[in-house]
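User: Show me an example of a complex going from sequences to structure tokens.

Assistant: Sure. Here are the input components:
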Amino acid sequence: MIDLLRAVGRLFIVFLSHVGRLSVFAATALSHAVRPPFYPRLILRATIEIGYYSLPVVGLTAIFSGMVLALQSYTGFARFSAEGAVATVVVLSMTRELGPVLAGLMVAGRIGASMAAEIGTMRVTEQIDALQTLSTDPFKYLIAPRLLAGLLMLPLLVLVADVIGVFGGYLVAVYKLGFNPATYISRTWEYLEALDVISGLTKAAVFGFLISLMGCYHGYHSKGGAQGVGAATTNSVVSAAILILIFNYVITALYFGK
Amino acid sequence: MSHMPANRPPKIQLTDVHKAFGPKVVLDGIDLTVGRGESVVVIGGSGTGKSVMLKCVLGLLTPERGSILVDGKEVVGMRSRERTQVMQKFGMLFQGGALFDSLKVWENVAFGLIQGRKMPREQAHEIAVDKLSQVGLAPSAGDLWPSELSGGMQKRVSLARAIATNPEIIFFDEPTTGLDPIMADVINDLIVKCVKELGATALSITHDMASARKIADRIAMLYKGKLIWIGPADEIDRSGNPFVDQFIHGRAEGPIKMELRA
């Protein structure tokens, strides 16, 4: 019994120490992000990497999500003759939930993993030590640009995903289910409120920050060669995905919980 | 490379430096003084804490106890902004080169000038090309990526990067590891030449005795976290210390027992 309690206690302490280290890491990175020197060239590079190169994968995810939403809600709602709600269901689901969450998860897989692998490799090959010996703070040079890019780019990606997802729903509704195009579009706008989009974009900004934070944190603290970098990559994706789902609930509760 | 007058503080002074990782004690009271313009080489087996000692001086690791003075100024516990200034005195050649693979060769060499000293890129490019030629590389090598270079060329680029800012102090971490004997000797010659031209203070760690003999004014041997012998390089064969004798002759038999099990 004592052994069990000891094991649980040890796990709890390890968990708390991780939370503490992560908080200090995030606070340090943020404080560097707002103080000069800034590295506009690196911010631009991270912005293009996260924003532009993620467009295809996020776009594909969004269009098929919108299409399947239209199909599912149509067949479901047909049971109680509510097919007319398809357009509203598609647009609300996309903007509030599926846009930010699916884009977040896809970007976590693509960007979080690559950040952790890149920074982790730099750590184990002493490139981060080399940065410090060359009078360059790794928090400013490596981490702050990625955090800023994640924070700024994910809302833009989600905005694009929202539009593409709604368009996917429109395609299925009009060309497969025989909806009238004009009616579908007017139904899409009818119940959509600014808050639906804004809440989704808030989530996106938080998710973008979390994805970059997890990628940088796990990469920065990786050790032990190729195996350590592999573990950092896995941990960054898994922890970012879990945090995205947790914060998705928290932000939804804050906006719509009443 | 010679000793400077004694009335100025030594360039680097370590006093009673302790560092442990959990229960494993790595540095157990290190005392070492490196004079201005002097070249000191620390020898010792793998895992004896040589790299940890260098990293403590550079502030990449923080010792639990002891004092490290650079130009008479305490650097243990120094704030990050002050440390960035002190770091401008240093150049470092890393064991694996540690070149930034996302930057071209010349950008690697010029990194400390562009990022650390805010020099315009064109001017830094000129200096980088000049430093590359000092280590025997053509200007065209500057436009390659680090992954396109052989191990010996990477070491040369890393050396060019270490001397690019004309540092007062240069650290060499296993400069000849992984190189063939001829390339190792070329690197040793380059190190001696560069340090001499800059008039810099050098602190190196290695387990390559040929390298140590070539680049050192004084040699110190690290064993189980302590410096067990320090003396002029040309006296190492007459040290009278059985540990040193075993190490420099590379004998399996002797007082140093290899720990085959962790």
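The lines above are the inputs; the final block is the predicted structure for all two components together. Chain A is about 85% helix and 0% strand.
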